[in-house]
């Protein structure tokens, strides 16, 4: 339930890294034993450091209150409440680091996406669609199940279906995704998961 990124962060890399950190954490820990509000703040706080786009913890907590209360006016917690939440967020950040064995690298899928799009001759005009689909992929746990290059290829494939465009492979003996070492089976499996994001009620 990390929605406060819209108010706090511009770099999508940071937002996606926070989501990936959360997915990885909950693959190891129960989703019912931890406060999702505090965990979301901690994941964004940690991702900001990892991706070199840090935000003040006070700003994260205040903005989180704004989002949770769904109000145009930011509900700033009282000082005592703020310090209590601040201590919890710091504790959760340490818990995230220990659970993930301090392996919290940024998400690299965006880099592969842009490189592959350029290699396939994709224009700047169509780049926004695969970028948006990749953003939405972090609603799922695909980042835990497949490699960054494979996800990038599937995102481009789904984008080509949405846009009605096709990519050509330099080798006439291969389908274009095979040039990136992605099999038909892997491509279909990831693509179906990506398309399902838009078929779910939460996407409406």
How much strand content do the residues show? under 5%
What structural class do you assign from the helix and strand content?
mainly alpha
Count of distinct strands: 0
Tally of DSSP helical segments: 10
The topology string of helices and strands comes to HHHHHHHHHH
Q: Shape, please? A: elongated
- Cα end-to-end separation: 16 Å
What does this structure look like?
- The chain has 204 residues and is an all-alpha fold.
- Helices cover 62% and strands 0% of the residues.
- It contains 10 helices and no strands.
- Helix 2 packs across helix 3 (36-50), helix 3 (36-50) packs across helix 4 and helix 4 packs across helix 5.
- The longest helix has 21 residues, at 79-99.
- It starts with a helix and ends in a 5-residue tail after the last helix.
Question: How would you describe this structure in keywords?
Answer:
single chain; 204 residues; mainly alpha
Write the layout of secondary structure elements.
Layout: H1 5-8, H2 12-28, H3 36-50, H4 57-68, H5 79-99, H6 109-119, H7 128-137, H8 142-145, H9 148-163, H10 184-199
Helix pairs in contact: 2-3, 3-4, 3-5, 4-5, 6-9, 7-9, 9-10
